[in-house]
Amino acid sequence: MAIKTLREQSYLVLLALAPEPLYGYGIIAAVRELSEGRVKLGAGTLYGALDRLADDGLVVLDHEEVVDGRFRRYYALTGAGREALDAETERLAALAAKARRRLIDSGSRPRTSPGMA
Fold first, then answer.
1. Where in the numbering of this chain does the Transcription regulator PadR N-terminal domain appear (predicted)?
2. Number of domains in the chain
3. 11: phi then psi, degrees, rounded to nearest 5
């Protein structure tokens, strides 16, 4: 079975979980750092993504704990999640390499629309 292409947010969530299990806020902070502030996940978006990733067998609930009276659920990658992350990383690297070659091949010729001088 071919692994489907991941949405950017899902890819970043998996990437955030690659080193170790994290809880919600930890995932949000890691995604913000990985994307250099470009992707800011809200709680609803994060937990929707985690639900989809769990349904697809890519993440699991690792453990739960209470810290300072607040409940935390830690999520971890599954083996399938690691495979999906690796496959998507390879796909993106190949796409970036093709983009670089295409840009180099096009040189520095400026493109103009017809009728523009």
1. 13-86
2. 1
3. -60, -45
